[in-house]
Amino acid sequence: MFRRWLKRNRSVNGASNGRYRNGNDHLIDLRQLVKAYQTEAGPFFALKGINLKIDTGEFVAVVGKSGSGKSTLINMITGIDRPTSGDVLVGDTVVHTLNEGRMAVWRGRHVGVVFQFFQMLPTLTVIENVMLPMDFCNIYSMRERQERAMRLLEQMDIANHANKLPSAISGGEQQRAAIARALANDPPIIAADEPTGNLDSKTADAVFELFEKLVDEGKTIVMVTHDRDLARRVTRTVTLADGEIVDELVRERNRLQSPLALTETIDA
Amino acid sequence: MLSPRWRKILRDLWHNKTRTVIVVLSISVGVFAIGMIVSTQIILSEDMASGYHATNPASAYLYPGNFDDDLVEAVRRIDGVQEAEGRLDWLSVRLKVGPDEWRDLIIDVIGDYDDMRLNKVSPVSGAWPPPKKGILIERNSLPLTNASVGDVIEIETSEGKVRQLHIAGLAHDMDNPPAQFIGRPFGYITFDTLEWLGYSRTYDELHILVAENTTDKDHIQAIADQVEDKIEKSGQTVYWTYIPEPGEHPANESVQPLLIIMGVLGTLSLFLSGFLVINTISALMTQQIRQIGIMKTVGARTTQIVGMYLGAVLIFGLLSLGVAVPLGALAAHAMSQYLAYLINFDLAGFRIPPRALALEVAVGLIVPLLAALYPILSGARVTVHKALSTYGLGKGIFGRSLIDRLIEELTTATQMLSRPMRLSLRNTFRRKGRLILTLSTLTLGGAIFIAVLSVHASLLTTLDDALTYWNYEIEIRFSRPHRIAQIEREAMNIPGVSDAECWSGNTARRQRPDGHEGPNISVIGVPADTNMIQPTILEGRWLLPEDENAIVVNTEVIKEESDIKIGDEILLKIEGREATWQVVGIVQGIMTGRIAYANQSYFAEVIRYVGRSSGVQIVAEAPGDASSPESTSKHDPTFQSELAKKIKTHFDSRGLQVRQTETTASIRENIEYQFNIIVIFLSIMAVLVAIVGGLGLTGTMSINVLERTREIGVIRAVGASDASVMKVFIVEGLFIGLLSWLIGAILALPISKMLSDAVGMAFLEAPLSYTFSTQGALLWLSIVLILSALASILPAWNASRLTVREVLAYE
């Protein structure tokens, strides 16, 4: 799916300096990102000139203390928030230049967002929540939507809860449902803001395994987390402090052998 | 299959039942008001017109003295006349309604009951036509006779003959005014019965129907002039010609202004319900903001979100139509039925007029959509980031504006209010936009409520003014004129009578310079130094004892004869004779109709009643002060009625046959009855407006609780009890109510003046004596405080049920 998308965009845009039409070689390319919030005490800089490049198939954990700018960073990638200055390039799209309407369509098709508090719509059943992005983006036929949503729920192992309201299932199941919803339109990127933050360790581990499976299937995942243990199982860890990247750790993941058997290199 | 987004909308409506009910009721109130008024308007206009047309109403009425069928036949042959018919109209007799109680009965005499051609009276029950010595009673009049069909009633003719008539049945007549309005019943007899009563077999009212252009008043006037010429050429004088509004029921001119005023109030209700929709949809969007953020995150475009919520509003509109259309139709039917009963016509049956339905559908769907557009657009345009952020403790800022600082200083400096009370007070001003919307609804509601009660107070003041204007208590009419000296002497011999004064009266019509006749003017001959009327002189002067052809007219004469100025000489035709009068003064007309006053002695000469009168005005003694006529108005109706009976007995025993007695209390009763109809209809609208206001406040308080969920958690965390949490919101509601009352009461001043002027002009052709209803303002204060408390209790109770954990963990 993603490859077809890239191919199509390349053919449309013709000449380009890089792999993508805006001259970026990486799937996600954040350039000199600055985000300032106006407060009564003056501007507060949540991000101070961030440069970050993420390639297809990477599983990136963004870690850092509270207030370090993790969520702000992930919001830049999903287009939920806009930078004060700098560029956000995702594939062929200069994300921060999109208006809200185009942004919603772009996000619906290309980024699946998973939140800490699941954010299921309370009056829709689990399967209806999963079908909702397909409905908004009008990608599949009505029949296909139902079938696809059920397949995703099966994949998440919660098909038996398909017709229940979110309030009737556990937090872990809600998060699985939220991941299924994030995958509804088969986006190449999954952005997750502390997806395991509200789950017990066993459930968190199960959810994390789902993410690993998705990466194996070719998805790119950017995840904000507080959980150091989980952060060790990803291919790259980006550490933020006071709005700046203070550490970046790249691992060659070989999960089949051992999650801990990783070759770590520090990217200067 | 319904897509998930529409399922969400439907389920949201179902899951938030209270909110759905508030929105649906908000819209329903407006649609109901419009539907009820427009339907009533249509049903009344259609049914009143069709019922009236079915009676084949005359185009013109001529009064050529007594005449017979030959004249009717001759008129039928005149070109342009399609039909003519004679009647003996308005024969006034006295009807015994109790052991010692009499009431006037108006009798119409119809020549041929089976061949009525114009202004047809129709049978309702019993015999048709009435047999000799029998009478048919107009169906609305029966209660005033204190009798039933089959009973025998006792009547006394103007000649003093007492006869017994058998009530043979009931009839329906749309041409006479409703009996309740004039306080006198109507009956119908044949000429045989008329002769038996001692009257001669003759007509006095000629009805004609023109052959063409039946709705053209000028054409009717021309034909009526032609008929008048022919009659006068035959040697008979036509005293008066009356041309009603062509094709229009006589009550239409009173009903239409009532419906127009109600229409204005209905539109206002709709406007207020629009405000309410804005408020409630804003609440809905506030509640939904996070979900909007989530939907946008998963790919929803703003237009899709807008579409979804407009769809929800459309559903609200449809639900409201489901509530308002049937209720509006029922209310319209009830209102039409009540008015039909008052005006005395039949409705064609229960129905929803298609035009009213179309308007209701348009109003029920378009107004909410328009009202909701702004809150929906602002809600849907919110960025995902903003939608998903839940920083701080509730929204709205307090402390920046001048008002905020003033309140802060006031509450802090005075140290009078407890801290929770101060919190309530300051909270009120946090969301100023919403506060303004809520206040607008509640304030306008209050202002209209007070205005309606002020109209009621103004109507009563006008009535009081009118009755003070007539500074006597009992009016006695004799069967024939008697000597004034005798009447007054006898009157003063009656215990309890403090003053008596004979007046003369007759009907005149102005002969205008253009040759046409003006409408009827009552000319009253009074002693120049009379105490029994207290007119307000606007221009010129009152009568002097030495005046001869001087005349004083009231403002209602001027309204019809606008060219008249002080000093002008006018030509008046009285009983077929013309006389010139000089206008010396203009007085304020107060519900008195068109009246001109002349010096009694001169006027008696003009009408050839020198030294004689057929009526006397009586002033009763005030308790403990036999010489003070000014205190007369203090007597109650029973006293007046008892005294009237004593006077009648006395005059009758002295050979002065009394035909009619009328007390100011009974006049007041009749007029109050009519005023109350206006007030009842205005009150219906006031109640509707109050409901809209109450709903508005409930909505606002619910949103306030919702928005301050976290804040409630904080208050609870620092030790607030259930009661304290509830108090914070109830006090806020009460404060909003109090504020709205204060502004509403001030706003009610101009609104009530305008409404009172409009009602006065519509029904009395003069502004009412404006009185601001302080009682109304205080009543609204009580209502608004109760409404505010009730409107806040449910949200406050919901707030008090939230636990600290729930609200602080609430994301």
Could you please describe the fold and organization of this structure?
The complex is a heterodimer of chains A (268) and B (811). Chain A is α/β, with parallel strands linked by helices. Chain A has one domain: Rossmann fold (3-Layer(aba) Sandwich). Helices cover 34% and strands 27% of the residues of chain A. Chain A contains eight helices and eleven strands. In chain A, the strands form two sheets. Chain A has a seven-stranded mixed sheet, with helices on both faces. In chain A, β4 and β5 form a beta hairpin. The longest helix of chain A is centred in the last third of the chain and has 16 residues. Chain A starts with a helix and ends with a strand. Chain B is α+β, with helices and mostly antiparallel strands and 811 residues long. Chain B folds into four domains: 194 residues, no CATH class; 183 residues, no CATH class; 185 residues, no CATH class; 161 residues, no CATH class. Helices cover 54% and strands 19% of the residues of chain B. Chain B has a six-stranded mixed β-barrel. The longest helix of chain B is centred in the middle third of the chain and has 46 residues. Chain B is elongated, with a radius of gyration of 34 Å. About 2% of the residues of chain B have low confidence. At the A-B interface, α3 and α4 of A face α1, α8, α9 and α11 of B.
